[in-house]
Each structure stands twice: as structure tokens, then as C-alpha cells.
Design goal:
heterodimer; A: 504 residues; mainly alpha; two-stranded antiparallel ribbon; two-stranded antiparallel sheet; 63% helix; globular; B: 453 residues; alpha/beta; Rossmann fold; Alpha-Beta Plaits; 4 domains; six-stranded parallel sheet; 14 helices; 22 strands
Chain lengths: 504, 453
């Protein structure tokens, strides 16, 4: 194991973190927080950047990155930024460590599960005065920034800015980027990383402007953009998007949540070749069909029943409002964002079950979403059909295609294994949660599904308008681990626990 | 630079790995997903599965700066180059297995149909083998025909007067002024000879200079004369294009060529082609009786050019055991090179695919630095760099330039004449300096050659 190379990579990742933290200092000063907050962010980012640069210079050199180093860099890198990112929560609002780490892990993995409300116990035993509203604005900004950085991936930034990684960069890319197979935009992986971040930044800017056009302040618009495009779900208000009570804002967020749940490689190709590339992609079509069908089904189910929005207001249950909330919730859950426009936990069980299923499916590969991913679901369905056919034609070669290309059985086996491990881990997580006092079956199961799929809200006690603050420390630790497993798509995380990973 | 490589075989892969290391964008096309997967796992390239002569595919990937057609099929390669240049690829390099396509008609040039450069690895390989036959001690020779210079690698014989000599105390002062020791391969490591370096047994020594001076040194160091016309050279296997070319070339040089070939048909067609002076023995080159019949005992050189690397190893070892003075082999699978170099009974070996990579690299010229050749035995490159006006190196004595200890100058070309890079030589603007090095070092040295600022 080339540890110098790993330390070198860590220094770059913490430098990226430090730069983002420095911007929080500016935001804090501009938003009228107490000066101590801005000063803390500034000093902390200086210490972090300074330390990183020192380590960077000490470990300089062109390092050879093997497969093992690649996996270790991604896993350790994520743990490192979560720890570094948790410090402001601990320091500025005296969160307990476990809460700060849960919140940061939830941020970077774009889960959006929060512990922040009035029932949150701080480390001196007191409680938060008004939940989200009593936190400094700089801290809220940082909370949203964790989404933005984690969405496209910090390691992808590392690949984009470090020119000499070569094949090592490709290994890192495959370890961090989601999906059944990672596609490439440019011959060199560093250019692919640059293009992906370019698209991401461009979309972020467009969404921020559109939200501001709908009457949001720059601060709110940017924070919600981070939550939307990274499919995270942290809002700046406890009532999530209902606080703005605007159809326009919800529509913009729906569109960008959907874009965030599509493959960013497609977005880049679209800019060159036009919108037709979307419809040519099987995974995108599947995502679109699922979304529309899910939305229509939910509209049909909740139409005529009482709808309560996330701010607690009763909504006129006409067909327009039913569709508005049904589609918002479908896209929000299916894109694994977790924004709430209404309290879907009060909807009929059929609707809640559909949402639970959508949580498991997730978005497309190469997007910022979690879940199983559409490509995998498509392959699983096709493979099952092929296997049924094979009972009639036992000697036929399994013919499964995706986007017109035959998928090798090696890939299919990997998908099957992923599917299995995903459910085993989800079930194990739910089992541990059930052992904790106060957790019921539905809350535990949905919390586990929600966290491994990086959605955020679950059902029952962790539903749309609830938080995770009441859970025991063990539950929070397990859920944070599930988030990381889900974001790194399990294999990347699990491989470092193999004994053979550490031997040569 | 954007480079498209058609064919992910040995040559394509070897070329991609060098070009990638240089930081260029590489796209690789092949029909076989297996080969592509192997490339994708080891190199930062984009792989495209498909037919390299599909006009639709090439149109999608164009424009590009360079296309290298390196499949095993000559016609595919030619067509790929033709299509690519039509689709807007600036330069094309075509790999062929023989000269038959473009040699006959002197008024027809490949550039007319969009092929800029042609590489024929098998011919180049024959060339390399022929050069190393010149003297028993020579392992590899790189010729620079335009200035009459060469960089030659020779094995230090056990009885050499050079053994145990410090480079500083080199006895023949008139000779040392004409040549430059530019590297020693000792135990698999490439070291730069300094004044204190002592020559040891089993060293492979790289010498640069004018051809006559280098040969003079080798003759003196080994105490042996070079191979003469009429000497017996035995070739094991002649069915492959390399074998045929080799037999033809060696016959032309006046050697007594004997070929051992198993397949009667290919042996007969070889006789039909070459006719007079050639002796063909029908039999298995890995059979000791056949080797004896061909007169391997005391033969100055035995060359094995079969398709199967195991056969090559076996026949060379057998020939050596039976008394061949020097054994030469080709390596079809480039990865086996390490293995061959650890076998004492094979004196030198050449891999047609690395030679192919090497010759394609020569065309990868850039403005200031260019790769001239790839040193097979030391796994490094021969570069040349032009000294710009006002560069830091201008007016510096070579002995005074100590900034990069891992670097050695081989020779300097000034106004078309070659000057050995001895310590007293002062470098002037406009000189082209030739050196042996790897890509990392070349990047470090480049700044010294360019004008400041």
C-alpha cells in the first residue's frame, strides 16, 4: 500500500473542504450572524487549508495509484471530510459529536436526514431554541454546501484538479461514481471529471437564478439549489419548501430534482447534440416513465382526501393541488432528495407503500442520487425474464441488452450481488434499529431504506415533518454508516474490510 | 493531442501506453471487448467497441490529430487510414506486415490515399537483428543514418581489458575523445557512467559515437573481430514474414544462410523466392539433430524467428548448448521480454510489437523534442532536443552541467555533423542534443533547452 499517495490525496480533499469552508465565513458575515461565527469559519478554514498545504507539499511527487489505493482514498477521503465538516456543528451550536457527525454524513452523502429540531439535545443537556431557525446562517450555508460537494463527489473534484493521476484517476472515478457501469465523456478521465463538474456548476447557477426569479433570496435560492441538484434535501426552513408556498418554486425544484436524478453524462451530451439524447437512453426513459406513472398513481390516490402541507396548512383537495403535491413528492422521493411539500405520512397506506418502493429504486447511474439505480432495476427485470425463458430453452445464451448493447454476464452477476447485499444491509440496519427503545417496525425499516438510499425522510416517526433527533446514539451511528455505504455503492466500502485487501 | 488507435493488440496497446504517459488523449477502437477491457483496466484511455473501418464510427470520433492503424490485418489498416484522413484526422500511421502494397510502383505514394506514414514492424525487426549480427558482443544498435552515428549496446566479455577499469582512467585517450559512454545496464538497472564508475562483468554498455569509432571500441573491448561475409548464420523457422525477410537480407549481405523449417510448402516457396545460395533444412528447429545438421556448432549466430515463444526459447537454448556462439530470438508476446532477458543462453532478443511501437513513436514529432527510438534492452527512449537561442544551456561545457544527475547526453548534432558529447564540448544555440532517458526526466530537462521566459 502506497500510504504517501493516500496522504497526498487526503491533503487535497481537505484543502477542497477548507476552501468551501472559507466561503461559509463570507456568507456568515454577509447574512448578519454574530461576528464570532464568521471568525470561526475563517480561522478554521485557514487552519485546515494551511495544514493541508503543508501535508501536500511534504507528500508531493507523482504517485502510482493502484486499485487498492484508489478504494482506500475514496473511503478514507469520505470519512475525513465528514469528520472535518462536523466540527462547525460541534463548535458553533454545541451539538453532541454523534449528532454533528450524523448531520454532516447526511449532508455529504446527500441524504438530507436531519437531527435539527427543538427536541435535539445539545452536549450541555439543553435543547435548541427554535430548531433550524436558531442556527447561524453560516452554519446553514455550510450544511447545504456539504450536499453540493458530496453530490457530484469530492473525489471527482480531486480527479479534475490533479493532472497526473492517469489510470489511478480512473480507478478513483469508478470507485466513487454511481451506477452499474461508469461511462466516460472524454478520453482522459480528468477531462471527464472537469466536464461533469462543469455541467453541475452550470445547472446550479441556472437553478439559483430561476429560484431568485420566484422571489427567493440569494441565500435561500443557493441553499435550495444545493439541496435539489445534489438530490440532498436540506432546506433552510423547518417547513421545507412549503415555507415558500409557491407553485413556481415547487415546479422549478421538481424539474431540477429530476435533472439531478438523471445521468450527468447525458446532460453534457445534450448540450452538444440536443434533447434527443435523453430519449435515446433507456435508463432515462425508465426514470421518466416511473416518475410519471408514480405521480399519476399518487394523484389518483390522494385526490379528494385532506392534504396538509409541510408547514401544517390544510390545502384545498382539488385535482390541481393533488397533482401538484403528488408529483412533487414522487420526484422528491424517487430522486432521493427528500424535500417535502406536504406531509405524505398522512396519506393512505397505498400511497406510502408506492413512495417506499420508489425510495428503493432511486435515480439513474452517474447522477447524484442513491438507491438501487434504474439501470440495475432494468437489468434485473430483463435478466429475470431471460431466466424464465431459459426454462423452455435451456441451452440458449442469455441475451440481455441495455441501450442496444449486450450486457456481459459478469456485469449481470455484479448487479445481482449488489441487489442482494443492498437488501441484506438494509435489513441488518433495520434489525439493529428495532432493538433500540422507541423504534417501531415501520420507523426502523423506513429509516433504514431511507438512509441507505440517501433519501432523508422515512415513514411514521421519521416521516416527512419529523427528524431523527429522538433516536438513540447507536441508531444514529448505524444510520450514518448506512448513508456512507449507500453513497459509495457498498462494494467500494466493503472491499476494504476484506483481509486480502490489506495483504498483497 | 487527440490520438485514435485502431486495434488493441500488442502494438496498439504498447503505443497507447507511451502516448498516454505523454499526456495525450487516447481513444482505442477494437472489435474485441476482451482486449478493450484489458486496455481500459491499465490505461487512462477511452475504449470504443466497434469496427475501426466503420465510417460512421470514425466520423463520430473525428476530428483527431493522429490515427494509428495497428490491427493485424493490412487491408483493414489501409482502409482505416484512408477513411480517417477523409474524416478530418490530421495524420495517419499505418502498420503493415510487408512492403508488397506500396513498394512496386515508385510513382504511387501512400500519401495519395491519405496514409502519411507506414510502419512495417517485421521489416524493422529484421533490420535490428541484422545490425546486432555484425559483432558477437552487440546486443542492440540504434543507427542515425543522416549523421552516420550510432548508439550501440554491447555485452562486456569476461576477458575484456575494460574490466575493472575506472572510466576516468580509460587507457586509450584518442578513442575516448571520439565516443561517449552513455549508460550501463547492470542487474536490470540503467545507471549513468561517471568518472568514478568501474566497468564490471555482465555489464551491458551503451556507447554513442560515429559508427567506425564505436566499432573500434567494441573490437578493442571484446578482443574479437566482427562477423565476416561468408560466416554461417542459422535461422530457425522461416514461415513468418520476419523469417523470409531475414533470410533475404542476410543472403544479400553475403552470409552463408541456412534455414531450418518444418513446413515443406513454406520452405519450398522460400527457395522459389530466394533461390541461389540458400540452404533449407526440413525439420523441427527445436530438434538437436536438425540443429547439428545445419552446422550450429561453432556458428557465429543462430536466430530463432518462430511464432511460438516457447519454441524460440527452446531452440535458442539448444543451439547454444550445441555450440552456437551467439543466439538471437524474437519475442512475440512483449510481456515475455523480462523473461528472455533473464535467460543467459539467449544473447539478444527483439519483440516485433515493441519495434512497431518504437517506429510509430518516431512519427510523433513535436516542435522541439522528438522521440528518435525506443531502447529495447533498457526500456527507455532516445530523445533529441534543439537548443534555442538564449537557453540556459547555451555556452555551457557539458562537464559543468550537473543539474540532472539522472541524465546523460549521447551526442550533439551541429550543422549536420555529429560531435560526441565529451566533457569539454560547449553547447551552442541550434545544436540538437541526443540523449537517453525516460519521459519524466525529459520533462525536467526541457526547460534548460528553451529560451528563458
Amino acid at each position: 500500500m502506497n500510504f504517501t499517495a493516500i496522504i497526498h490525496a487526503m491533503s487535497v480533499l481537505s484543502l477542497i473542504c477548507g476552501v468551501a469552508m472559507a466561503s461559509a465565513s463570507g456568507v456568515s458575515a454577509a447574512m448578519g450572524d454574530p461576528p464570532s461565527v464568521a471568525i470561526f469559519f475563517l480561522l478554521y478554514s485557514l487552519v485546515m487549508a494551511g495544514g493541508s498545504i503543508l501535508v501536500f507539499l511534504r507528500s508531493r511527487g507523482e504517485h502510482e495509484l493502484g486499485t487498492r489505493e484508489g478504494f482506500l482514498i475514496v473511503v478514507l477521503g469520505w470519512l475525513l471530510i465528514i469528520l472535518l465538516g462536523a466540527v462547525p456543528f460541534r463548535w458553533l451550536s454545541s451539538f453532541r459529536w454523534i449528532d454533528a457527525i450524523f448531520e454532516t454524513a447526511s449532508g455529504f452523502t446527500t441524504t438530507g436526514a436531519s437531527v435539527i429540531d427543538q427536541s435535539l439535545v445539545l452536549c450541555d443537556g439543553s435543547r435548541l431554541a427554535q430548531g433550524l431557525c436558531s442556527l447561524p446562517k453560516g452554519l446553514l450555508y455550510w450544511r447545504s454546501m456539504t450536499h453540493w460537494l458530496g453530490g457530484m463527489g469530492v473525489v471527482v473534484i480531486y480527479i479534475a484538479i490533479i493532472p497526473y493521476l492517469g489510470i489511478g484517476g480512473k480507478k478513483l472515478y469508478q470507485a466513487e461514481v454511481s451506477g452499474a457501469s461508469s461511462s466516460q465523456l472524454a478520453p482522459r478521465i480528468t477531462d471527464t471529471a472537469k466536464m461533469l463538474w462543469g455541467v453541475y456548476i452550470l445547472f446550479s447557477a441556472v437553478q439559483t437564478l430561476l429560484l431568485m426569479a420566484g422571489g427567493m433570496s440569494l441565500f435561500d435560492a443557493w441553499c435550495h439549489t444545493c439541496g435539489t441538484l445534489a438530490t440532498g434535501g436540506f432546506s433552510t426552513s423547518p417547513a421545507s419548501v412549503s415555507a415558500f408556498n409557491s407553485f413556481y418554486i415547487e415546479a422549478v425544484i421538481i424539474v431540477f430534482m429530476f435533472l439531478g436524478s438523471s445521468n450527468f453524462v447525458l446532460h453534457h451530451q445534450m448540450m452538444k447534440k440536443g434533447l434527443s439524447v435523453y430519449l435515446k437512453d433507456e435508463e432515462f426513459r425508465s426514470n421518466l416513465v416511473f416518475t410519471i406513472l408514480g405521480g399519476l398513481a399518487l394523484t389518483f390516490i390522494i385526490h379528494g382526501r385532506a392534504i396538509v402541507d409541510a408547514a401544517g396548512r390544510a390545502v384545498d383537495p382539488n385535482i390541481f393541488n393533488a397533482a401538484r403535491h403528488a408529483f412533487f413528492q414522487t420526484v422528491s422521493i424517487k430522486s432521493t432528495t427528500g424535500f417535502c411539500s406536504s406531509d405524505f405520512d398522512m396519506w393512505p397506506d397505498t400511497a406510502r407503500f408506492i413512495l417506499l418502493m420508489l425510495m428503493i429504486v432511486g435515480g439513474c447511474g452517474g447522477s447524484t442520487t442513491g438507491g438501487l439505480k434504474h439501470a440495475r432495476v432494468i437489468l434485473l427485470v430483463k435478466y429475470s425474464v431471460v431466466q424464465i425463458k431459459r426454462t423452455l430453452f435451456p441451452h440458449s445464451l442469455s441475451n440481455v441488452t441495455l441501450n442496444g448493447a449486450r450486457v456481459e454476464s459478469e456485469t449481470l452477476h455484479k448487479v445481482l450481488a449488489f441487489f442482494f447485499i443492498y437488501f441484506v444491509i438494509m435489513a441488518a440496519g433495520a434489525l439493529i434499529l428495532c432493538t433500540q427503545p422507541g423504534n417501531d417496525l415501520l420507523s426502523s425499516t423506513s429509516a433504514s431504506i431511507s438512509c441507505i438510499g440517501s433519501i432523508g425522510p422515512g415513514l411514521a416517526k421519521v416521516g416527512a415533518v419529523c427528524t431523527y433527533s429522538w433516536m438513540s446514539d447507536l441508531s444514529k451511528a448505524v444510520l450514518a454508516a448506512l448513508m456512507l455505504l449507500g453513497r459509495l455503492e457498498i462494494f467500494t466500502m466493503m472491499v476494504i474490510f476484506l483481509p486480502t485487501f490489506w495483504k498483497r | 493531442m487527440k490520438v485514435i488507435i485502431v486495434g488493441a493488440g500488442e502494438v496498439g496497446r504498447g503505443f497507447a501506453s507511451v502516448v498516454c504517459g505523454e499526456g495525450h488523449e487516447v481513444i482505442m477502437i477494437d472489435n474485441s471487448s476482451k482486449l478493450l477491457k484489458r486496455v481500459a483496466q491499465s490505461l487512462d484511455v477511452m475504449t470504443v467497441q466497434g469496427n475501426g473501418v466503420s465510417s460512421e464510427l470514425l466520423r463520430r470520433l473525428a476530428p483527431a490529430d493522429l490515427l494509428v492503424a495497428a490491427t493485424g490485418e493490412d487491408t483493414t489498416n489501409i482502409l482505416a487510414c484512408q477513411l480517417a484522413s477523409h474524416m478530418g484526422v490530421r495524420q495517419t500511421i499505418c502498420r503493415l506486415s510487408s512492403e508488397e502494397y506500396f513498394n512496386q510502383t515508385p510513382d504511387f505514394f501512400p500519401s495519395l490515399i491519405g496514409i502519411n506514414q507506414i510502419i512495417i514492424p517485421s521489416l524493422e525487426c529484421v533490420d535490428k537483428i541484422v545490425r546486432c549480427i555484425e559483432h558477437r558482443a552487440i546486443i542492440e544498435k540504434i543507427l542515425f543514418k543522416d549523421v552516420g552515428a550510432e548508439i550501440t549496446c554491447f555485452k562486456m566479455p569476461n576477458t575484456s581489458p575494460l574490466l575493472g577499469v575506472r572510466l576516468r582512467d580509460f587507457p586509450d585517450s584518442s578513442l575516448i575523445g571520439k565516443i561517449r559512454f552513455c549508460g550501463i545496464l547492470r542487474g536490470g538497472k540503467f545507471i549513468i557512467p561517471r568518472g568514478e564508475t568501474v566497468f564490471a562483468t555482465d555489464d551491458d554498455i551503451f556507447v554513442a559515437g560515429l559508427s567506425e569509432s564505436v566499432m573500434e571500441l567494441i573490437e578493442w573491448a571484446s578482443g574479437e573481430k566482427p562477423t565476416r561475409k561468408g560466416d554461417r548464420i542459422i535461422i530457425g523457422g522461416a514461415a513468418s514474414p520476419i523469417g523470409r525477410h531475414l533470410a533475404k537480407e542476410l543472403l544479400g549481405l553475403g552470409y552463408d544462410v541456412r534455414v531450418i523449417e518444418q513446413n515443406i510448402e513454406s520452405a519450398e516457396s522460400l527457395l522459389d523466392e530466394l533461390g541461389k545460395g540458400l540452404m533449407v533444412i526440413i525439420g523441427d528447429p527445436t530438434d538437436k539433430d536438425m540443429l547439428e545438421e545445419a552446422g550450429v556448432s561453432g556458428a557465429p549466430c543462430f536466430i530463432s524467428v518462430m511464432e511460438d515463444d516457447e519454441d524460440n526459447i527452446m531452440s535458442c537454448m539448444l543451439a547454444k548448448k550445441k555450440g552456437a556462439i551467439k543466439t538471437v530470438s524474437i519475442v512475440n508476446k512483449a510481456d515475455y521480454g523480462v523473461l528472455f532477458s533473464s535467460l543467459d543462453m539467449i544473447d539478444c532478443f527483439f519483440s516485433p510489437s515493441s519495434v512497431g511501437v518504437n517506429s510509430a513513436l518516431k512519427f510523433l514529432e513535436e516542435e522541439k523534442s522528438r522521440v528518435l527510438a525506443l531502447v529495447n534492452s533498457a526500456n527507455s527512449f532516445v530523445f533529441d532536443l534543439k537548443v534555442e537561442k538564449d537557453a540556459e544551456l547555451c555556452g555551457t561545457r557539458i562537464a559543468d552541467f550537473r543539474n540532472l544527475p539522472e541524465m546523460v547526453f549521447a551526442f550533439v548534432v551541429r550543422n549536420g555533423t555529429m560531435l560526441p558529447a565529451t566533457g569539454d564540448l560547449r553547447i551552442e544555440a541550434g545544436d540538437r542534443v541526443t540523449m537517453i532517458s525516460d519521459f519524466d526526466t525529459i520533462r525536467k530537462i526541457e526547460p534548460y533547452f528553451y529560451a528563458k521566459g
